């Protein structure tokens, strides 16, 4: 998802000023990385150019941001196309974790130790996320859960791999 | 205490199943408690009855009471249907004569006080026939204090003629309350013992089984409580508290049941014994004992249930999962009972009744450990083959105790029912025919001299009754010396009548017959004296031909002289015979009321004449049989419900397995058959055992009561049929739908 | 982390200390030298694949199972030296339990279930039920007090079980797969409630689970594999 698509989705709900757009984006989509104002206006400029939004009025108030942006029909179509298109599942075939395990095995070091260290690291991360989740609202919970489920999947892979390490070592060294 | 209370709380379950369980256990305890309370009341009941009977006893036992403030009494013991009639003809010799208990005043001549039951019978259907036995004007009712029970038929009649009969039919008493000698029929005690064992044991088994229904669920629950911090003794206390609820409720319901039975007690009769409700009250110590026994039984059953089971916080552990079926200790009670019964089985003349009774009870008890052994044995022996039987037999072999828990009670009940039914059947066969086929059904022995014509008239009188053939003779007893009596008879009668008494070649009036060595003359025994006194001397006619007495008369009589009327010498015709005997034979077409009519006729001839029914007129065991049928019906019904609960709960426990079987493609019929076989095989094996032991027990009872050993198929098979019908109805009616439900794979979703 | 505790002040802050536990069920070895240390008020997760022995470790640590070898010290006492009465008293007063299922008494209402440990400890019915009601109110279970377990959902049953585990003010709560039979939302509610309430009450929690997302509610975790706990893994 690009910032442009996110803006279109936000604007489909209601026309907004650039400043409100940034705030809404930060709330729903930014995660840990809020937008710079620069990014807001370059993105809006791009959308204007493609005819996906229009500036429909300039407010009478003074201030840095008096333009209000409205989505066009083309913009709505764009949002629809975005939602219709399934995300390509990540293949996870290039994994640093996997590389480290193979590296340990190739060099005759303990792959189990690599896994143990990683497990502890994952668990620490998960505990941190759980604390955040307990402190936050529902939206926070959902995004934390997303991360937790992924870490959980990693952990399960770690456990699974740990039980297969001996066989794997034989194969790698052959 | 808190734990007991918690246990009590836990016994009030949620859900239909739990309620049913508590209700069944309560019902079992209630019936048991009522039976025990009644048992505890028997001593009081019998004591009260005995006390009243002693208070009115007038048997002077051969002692002559001199005249004075005395009452003249003559006894008329009679019978009406199944009821003995106690009649007393009385006449006071002075105003200060003793008044019989329960009678307000002396009745005038030909007036009587009658018991309420007798009055009711006189007013009832066929009362006119009864009335002929006691043709006195009823002027009042005998109070309960003068009666043995509410259903006793009794009367006191004023009878002035009794004055002239003192010494030959009546006697003097100066008081009431002579020593009463008790009597009890042989074998009766053993029959009652067998009956109690048959009826009470299943109740005990049922209580035990009922208290253990759902024991598995309870154990899981206790494990959960253990986790929360109850130690093993607290858990035991909780379980005890839980078992107290059916015990307590059952005691309350049992007391209620007891009071209901007590209220209806006036309607009940066993062995001619009826009791006043007021006399039924438990001996206080025994009543307390009943409560203690019930509580102890339920507690004991609970503790027994924990044998080999460890309830731990993490769950329930059974110490021996593999069932260890040793035979020898299971045979111990059987061996002990056979040892106790050995004299009876060997045909000893006078077996010890207490010992035999114990043996009978033990024989029934011996079944209890045998059933769980038998079932896996049968499961092993029966050829395998079908998948359903394989499933069923494995289950039966692995947990026979659970499979037979509910069956044992049925086996015990059916065994007892078979034994008692065969016994009652054999006893009633004896009743229908006299011991000796040559004997008459009834005999009237009246004092006084009768002409041959009068004797013929008396015969004709009795032959008025349909189906009755009669014959009247004059009987003299031969004087055999000062020390011997009853060794010989002199009988006077016409040819037709003599033929009923003895066998001989031919007969015409004027003939005489002899049996044994009479010598040239015989001497009769004079009737007027208590000491043997020689009476009339009679020459044995020269042409007398040999004859032989038949029937009971042949026993103990070694000499006899039979005379037809025209050869009777004048001296003998003037002498008074010992008695004039009318013998009555009952044909198959005789009506049921024949006995009553004959008694009425006899009473009209002479109320003091001795009327004897050689063959009992009624079934002495009829009331017992009714009690048995009623009792075994109730018990089998309870057992049926018990079996149902048991099977249903086992089905419930195994529904996952059955569901899996169905899911992997076992045909539904296979699964259902395996469930059915699991229920049916133990019952059938148990019933086979019941037939064997029941027949043996029946034989023991017959021997005890000197009844010829005889078995009728219906007496053996009826209880078996009822038992198996019950099981079939239970399994097919309820189990099948349940099994059907369980075998739908739907069930798996909830697992 | 554990090493740090030992260095800091030995067993003073360690409430429960299980060391070198061995346990075999017939030919199956469940524990082959496992350790578990729990400090007052902390939440420790015990993770491991199924059959790793983590439940046995919990059972031994709680005195429910006697280990074949090893020591379990609780508050200065050796658990394996205590008799059944003493251990039962400990379970009543000092420990609380939340298992996967089957721990509530179906015949009793939720309130009576929660009051049960107090009742077993001799507290009068009124007092016990008043305290149980208070706790259930705080835990948001007030409307379920009169229901029997059979009428509650799995999650509600587990929350009642948590309330029961907390009612005596225990110092350690042993939770064995408390969310094992629940869907993830209900499971999270139970975990949320368990950890929050335990922290408020200052109770330590031993949380046995195979689920990392459940284990993430703990302050720290150990892993059991093949009957050995993570503290010992390095020694191998």
CATH topology heading of chain C: Rossmann fold
Helical region count of chain B?
20
Question: Hey, which two chains have the biggest interface?
Answer: B-C, 26 and 32 residues
Calculate Rg of chain B over CA atoms: 34 Å
From the N-terminal CA to the C-terminal CA of chain C, the straight-line distance is 19 Å
Strand content of chain C: 25-35%
Number of strands of chain B: 20
Q: What is the alpha-carbon Rg of chain C in Å?
A: 17 Å
Which secondary-structure class do the elements of chain C indicate?
A: alpha/beta
Beta-strand portion of chain B reads 5-15%
Please give the largest β-sheet of chain C.
6 strands, mixed
Please give the order of strands in the largest beta sheet of chain B. Answer: 16-13-18-11-10-19-9-20
Q: What is the CATH H-level superfamily of chain C?
A: P-loop containing nucleotide triphosphate hydrolases
In helices, the fraction of residues of chain B equals 40-55%
- Kindly give the count of domains of chain C: 1
* Oligomer description: heterotrimer
Overall number of structural domains of chain B: 4
Mean pLDDT of chain C: 84
Q: What's the CATH architecture of chain C?
A: 3-Layer(aba) Sandwich
What would you say about this model in short?
The complex is a heterotrimer of chains A (174), B (751) and C (236). Chain A has helices at 3-13, 18-28, 37-49, 73-84, 96-106, 111-135, 138-173; strands at 16-17, 53-58, 67-71.
Description:
The complex is a heterotrimer of chains A (174), B (751) and C (236). In chain A, strand 2 and strand 3 (67-71) form a beta hairpin. The radius of gyration of chain A is 23 Å and the shape is elongated. Chain A is mostly helical. The model of chain A has no long low-confidence stretch (mean pLDDT 82). Chain A has helices at residues 3-13, 18-28, 37-49, 73-84, 96-106, 111-135, 138-173; strands at 16-17, 53-58, 67-71. The longest helix of chain A has 36 residues, at 138-173. Chain A has 2 domains: 3-84, Winged helix-like DNA-binding domain superfamily/Winged helix DNA-binding domain (Arc Repressor Mutant, subunit A, Orthogonal Bundle), CATH 1.10.10; 96-173. In chain B, helix 11 crosses helix 19 (668-704) and helix 17 packs parallel to helix 20. In chain B, the strands form 5 sheets. Chain B has an 8-stranded mixed β-sheet. Chain B has 4 domains: 1-57 and 215-313, no CATH class; 71-173, no CATH class; 322-431 and 619-751, no CATH class; 442-613, no CATH class. The two termini of chain B are 38 Å apart. Chain C is of the alpha/beta class and 236 residues long. Chain C has 9 helices and 10 strands. Chain C has helices at residues 2-9, 54-61, 84-93, 110-120, 125-138, 154-166, 184-201, 212-215, 230-233; strands spanning 14-25, 28-39, 43-47, 69-74, 77-78, 95-98, 172-176, 204-208, 220-225, 228-229. Chain C is globular, with a radius of gyration of 17 Å. Mean pLDDT of chain C is 84; it is low at 1-12 and 232-236. The B-C interface holds B 2-3, 6, 9-10, 12-15, 18, 220-221, 224-234, 312-314 and C 59, 64-65, 84-85, 87-93, 95, 97, 99, 102-108, 112, 116-117, 119-122, 148, 150, 164.
């Amino acid at each position: 998802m690009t910032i442009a698509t996110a803006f279109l989705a936000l604007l489909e709900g209601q026309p907004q000023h650039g400043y409100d757009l940034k705030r809404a984006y930060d709330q729903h989509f930014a995660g840990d990385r809020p937008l710079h104002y620069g990014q807001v206006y370059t993105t809006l400029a791009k959308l204007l150019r493609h005819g996906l939004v229009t500036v429909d009025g300039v407010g009478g108030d003074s201030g840095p941001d008096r333009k209000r942006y409205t989505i066009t029909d083309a913009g709505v179509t764009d949002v629809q196309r975005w939602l219709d298109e399934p995300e390509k599942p990540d293949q996870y075939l290039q994994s640093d974790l996997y590389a480290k395990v193979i590296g340990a095995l190739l060099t005759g070091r303990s792959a189990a130790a690599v896994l143990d260290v990683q497990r502890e690291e994952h668990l620490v991360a998960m505990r941190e996320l759980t604390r955040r989740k307990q402190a936050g609202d529902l939206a926070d919970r959902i995004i934390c859960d997303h991360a937790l489920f992924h870490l959980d999947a990693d952990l399960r892979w770690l456990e699974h791999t740990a039980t297969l390490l001996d066989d794997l070592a034989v194969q790698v060294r052959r | 205490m808190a734990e007991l209370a918690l246990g009590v709380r836990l016994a009030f379950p949620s859900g239909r199943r739990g309620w049913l369980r508590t209700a069944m256990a309560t019902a079992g305890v209630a019936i048991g408690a009522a039976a025990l309370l009644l048992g505890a009341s028997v001593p009081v009941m019998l004591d009260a009855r005995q006390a009243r009977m002693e208070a009115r006893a007038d048997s002077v036992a051969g002692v002559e009471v001199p005249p004075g403030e005395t009452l003249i009494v003559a006894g008329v013991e009679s019978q009406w249907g199944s009821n003995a009639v106690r009649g007393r003809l009385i006449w006071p010799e002075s105003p200060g004569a003793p008044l019989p208990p329960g009678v307000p005043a002396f009745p005038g001549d030909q007036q009587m006080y009658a018991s309420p039951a007798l009055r009711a019978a006189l007013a009832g259907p066929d009362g006119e026939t009864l009335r002929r036995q006691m043709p006195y004007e009823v002027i009042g009712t005998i109070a309960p204090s003068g009666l043995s029970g509410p259903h006793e038929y009794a009367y006191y009649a004023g009878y002035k003629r009794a004055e002239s009969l003192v010494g030959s039919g009546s006697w003097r008493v100066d008081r009431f309350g002579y020593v009463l000698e008790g009597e009890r029929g042989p074998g009766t005690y053993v029959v009652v013992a067998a009956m109690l064992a048959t009826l009470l044991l299943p109740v005990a088994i049922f209580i035990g089984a009922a208290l253990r229904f759902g024991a598995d669920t309870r154990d899981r629950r206790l494990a959960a409580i253990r986790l929360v911090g109850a130690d093993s003794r607290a858990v035991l206390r909780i379980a005890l508290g839980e078992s107290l609820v059916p015990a307590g409720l059952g005691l309350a319901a049992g007391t209620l049941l007891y009071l209901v039975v007590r209220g209806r007690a006036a309607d009940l009769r066993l062995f001619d014994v009826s009791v006043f409700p007021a006399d039924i009250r438990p001996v206080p110590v025994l009543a307390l004992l009943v409560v203690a026994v019930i509580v102890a039984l339920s507690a004991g059953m609970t503790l027994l249930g924990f044998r080999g089971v460890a309830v731990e916080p993490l769950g329930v552990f059974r110490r021996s999962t593999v069932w260890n079926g040793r035979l020898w200790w299971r045979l111990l009670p059987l061996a002990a009972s056979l040892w106790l019964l050995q004299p009876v089985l060997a045909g000893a003349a006078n077996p010890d009744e207490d010992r035999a009774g114990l043996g009978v009870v033990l024989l029934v008890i011996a079944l209890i450990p045998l059933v769980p052994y038998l079932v896996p044995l049968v499961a092993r022996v029966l050829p395998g083959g079908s998948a359903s039987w394989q499933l069923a037999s494995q289950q039966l072999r692995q947990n026979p105790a659970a499979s037979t828990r509910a069956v044992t009670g049925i086996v015990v009940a059916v065994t007892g029912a078979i034994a008692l039914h065969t016994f009652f059947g054999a006893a009633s066969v004896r009743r229908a025919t006299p011991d000796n086929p040559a004997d008459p059904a009834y005999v009237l022995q009246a004092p006084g001299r009768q002409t041959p014509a009068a004797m013929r008239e008396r015969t004709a009188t009795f032959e008025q009754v349909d189906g009755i053939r009669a014959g009247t003779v004059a009987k003299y007893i031969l004087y055999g010396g000062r020390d011997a009596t009853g060794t010989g008879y002199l009988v006077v009668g016409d040819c037709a009548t003599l033929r009923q008494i003895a066998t001989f070649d031919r007969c015409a009036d004027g003939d005489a017959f002899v049996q044994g060595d009479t010598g040239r003359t015989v001497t009769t025994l004079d009737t007027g004296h208590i000491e043997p006194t020689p009476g009339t001397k009679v020459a044995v006619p020269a042409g007398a031909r040999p004859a032989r007495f038949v029937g009971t008369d042949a026993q103990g009589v070694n000499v006899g002289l039979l005379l037809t009327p025209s050869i009777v010498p004048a001296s003998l015709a003037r002498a008074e015979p010992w008695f004039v005997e009318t013998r009555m034979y009952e044909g198959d077409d005789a009506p049921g009321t024949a006995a009553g009519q004959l008694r009425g006729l006899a009473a009209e001839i002479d109320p003091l004449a001795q009327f004897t029914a050689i063959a009992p007129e009624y079934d002495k065991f009829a009331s017992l049989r009714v009690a048995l049928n009623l009792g075994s019906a109730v018990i089998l019904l309870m057992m049926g419900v018990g079996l149902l609960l048991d099977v249903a709960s086992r089905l419930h426990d195994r529904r996952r397995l059955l569901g899996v079987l169905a899911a992997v493609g076992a045909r539904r019929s296979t699964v259902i058959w395996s469930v059915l076989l699991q229920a049916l095989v133990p019952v059938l094996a148990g019933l086979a055992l019941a037939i064997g032991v029941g027949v043996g027990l029946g034989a023991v009872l017959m021997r005890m009561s000197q009844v010829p050993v005889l078995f009728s198929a219906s007496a053996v098979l009826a209880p078996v049929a009822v038992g198996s019908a019950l099981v079939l109805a239970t399994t097919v009616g309820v189990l099948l739908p349940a099994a059907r439900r369980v075998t739908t794979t739907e069930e798996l979703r909830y697992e | 982390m554990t090493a740090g505790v030992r260095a800091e002040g030995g067993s003073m802050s360690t409430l429960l200390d299980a060391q070198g536990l061995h346990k075999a069920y017939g030919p199956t070895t469940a524990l082959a030298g496992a350790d578990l240390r729990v400090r007052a008020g902390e939440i420790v997760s015990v993770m491991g694949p199924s059959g790793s022995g983590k439940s046995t470790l919990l059972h031994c640590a709680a005195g429910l199972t006697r280990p074949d070898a090893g020591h379990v010290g609780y508050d200065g006492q050796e658990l394996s030296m205590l008799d059944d009465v003493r251990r039962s008293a400990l379970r009543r007063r000092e420990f609380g339990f939340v298992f996967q299922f089957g721990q509530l008494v179906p015949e009793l209402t939720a309130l009576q279930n929660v009051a049960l440990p107090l009742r077993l400890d001799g507290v009068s019915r009124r007092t016990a039920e008043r305290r149980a009601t208070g706790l259930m109110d705080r835990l948001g279970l007030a409307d379920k007090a009169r229901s029997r377990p059979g009428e509650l959902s799995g999650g509600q049953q587990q929350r009642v079980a948590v309330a029961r585990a907390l009612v005596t003010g225990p110092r350690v709560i042993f939770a064995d797969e408390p969310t094992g039979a629940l869907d993830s939302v209900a499971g999270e509610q139970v975990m949320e409630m368990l950890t929050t309430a335990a922290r408020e009450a200052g109770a330590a929690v031993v949380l046995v689970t195979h689920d990392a997302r459940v284990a993430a509610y703990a302050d720290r975790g150990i892993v059991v594999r093949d009957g050995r706990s993570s503290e010992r893994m390095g020694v191998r």
